[in-house]
UniProtKB/TrEMBL annotation:
Entry keyword set: Aminotransferase, Pyridoxal phosphate, Transferase
Gene Ontology MF: a single term: transaminase activity
Residues recorded as bearing N6-(pyridoxal phosphate)lysine in the entry: 191
Catalytic center residues: 191
GO terms of biological process kind: polysaccharide biosynthetic process
Gene3D superfamilies xrefs: Aspartate Aminotransferase, domain 1, Type I PLP-dependent aspartate aminotransferase-like (Major domain)
Cofactors that this protein relies on: pyridoxal 5'-phosphate
Family in the record: Belongs to the DegT/DnrJ/EryC1 family. L-glutamine:2-deoxy-scyllo-inosose/scyllo-inosose aminotransferase subfamily.
Protein name (database record): DegT/DnrJ/EryC1/StrS family aminotransferase
């Protein structure tokens, strides 16, 4: 299969880059020629693939993971005064959606090894107002979902998985996205399956039924279902909804990328293994740990740089890799509790989150990289320690 050319040495090596092949291009052309551009047969193909892979009741292809998270909270009836336990070391999408609906994200600290929240920390944060737990599988390393499922059931809480990083990850035989009442995927341009934009909401049938309604204006049938009928205006608005569906042009790319995940993830894992082998002895640099029973999704290859033992701190390392070696990196994440609207939520001290956020650096790790690129990153990083 021909794919877009991997990055050249002419410009900086991007920290991430999609790998789009002829199959994705052919599917898009097929969609453009079909006369049906919005949510229709291609979106349905993606939905069935996700539903079957996760063995869940239903999956709904939407415009982004942010849309999926918003629909998840709406469908679950999470709103005014409700508390949802969630990490701060994440992207702002889930906390923003909660805050917009009048709910309060209750941030708990992460485990220093996996950078995921733990069932123990979540349990300690449960109050009478707690309505749910929204976990996030950091970088593609799954949380302990067996324990989270048991905790949610014990306290009658809703369990939501933000699986934006973990489309092809598993733990103890459980696929990411299969244990929650609801789970969300991202097909954003830099994700492990990239369609530019896009998301999927998967999970329980009753909640998905409500989410489908809410995601198509509250109308009781989809445009595709009404297509070809004599009177397409024959519909009812059941609830005041929004418009969050994934168009078929996007779904054409997403469906093919989703099918390529086994190959993509194997390549990501091989790059990660090369990095770990080559960088593990550097003082002050911690390579990621994969816990037993975990099949990592490797959206990120996150290292932690302790300025007390490393020659340069995280920001100096990133700047030197870019300026001297033409290698881009990224940081995941600015802790959400330190950002604008969250600072006023009250005293929140999350020491592990804050230390990790100051030390974390994501090295390039994606299937469009060649072995030459991987060696270049290894040599460049090691050169900072000599
Ligand atoms: C953990 C997490 N959740 C949600 C999102 C939002 O995804 P999208 O851009 O598809 O809305 C991101 C995006 O980076 C993310 O990292």
């Amino acid at each position: 299969m021909t794919s877009t050319p991997a990055p050249t040495t002419a410009g900086p090596l991007p920290w991430n880059q999609p790998l789009i092949g002829e199959e994705e291009i052919a599917e898009v052309v097929d969609t453009l020629r079909s006369g049906w551009l919005t949510h229709g047969p291609k979106a349905t193909r993606l939905e069935h693939a996700v539903r079957d892979a996760l063995s869940v009741d239903d999956a709904f292809a939407v415009s982004s993971c942010t849309a999926a998270l918003h629909l998840a909270f709406l469908a679950a009836g999470i709103g005014d005064g409700d508390e949802v336990i969630t990490p701060s070391l994440t992207f702002c999408a889930a906390p923003n959606a909660l805050l917009r609906e009048g709910a309060r994200p209750v941030f708990v600290d992460v485990d220093p090894v996996t950078l995921n929240i733990t069932p123990e920390a979540a349990e300690a944060a449960i109050t009478p107002r707690t309505k749910g737990i929204a976990v996030m599988h950091y970088g593609g390393h799954m949380c302990d979902m067996q324990a989270f499922r048991a905790l949610a059931d014990q306290h009658g809480l809703l369990l939501i998985e933000d699986a934006a990083h973990a489309l092809y990850a598993s733990r103890d035989g459980l696929r990411a996205g299969s244990a929650g009442d609801l789970a969300t995927y991202s097909f954003y341009a830099n994700k492990v399956a990239a369609a530019g934009e896009g998301g999927v909401l998967a999970g329980r049938g009753d909640l998905l039924h409500q989410a489908r309604l809410l995601g198509r204006h509250g109308i009781d049938s989809s445009a595709w279902q009404r297509h070809g009928k004599r009177n397409t205006a024959d519909y009812e608005v059941v609830v005041p909804g929004l418009k969050y569906v994934m168009p078929d042009v996007t779904a054409a790319i997403a469906a093919v990328q989703y099918e390529r995940l086994p190959d993509f993830t194997a390549r990501r894992a091989a790059i990660a293994a090369s990095y770990t082998q080559a960088l593990t002895d550097l003082p002050g640099l911690t390579t990621p740990t994969v816990l037993p029973g975990v099949q990592h999704g490797w959206f990120l290859y996150p290292v932690l740089i302790d300025p007390a033992d490393a020659p340069l701190d995280r920001d100096q390392t990133a700047a030197t890799l870019l300026q001297r070696h033409q290698i881009s990196t990224s940081v995941h994440f600015k802790p959400v509790h330190t950002l604008g609207p969250y600072r006023s939520l009250g005293d929140q001290t999350l020491p592990v989150t804050e230390t990790a956020a100051a030390r974390q650096l994501s090295l390039p790790c994606y299937p469009a990289m060649t072995d030459v690129h991987v060696d270049h990153v290894i040599t460049a990083v090691r050169s900072l320690w000599t």
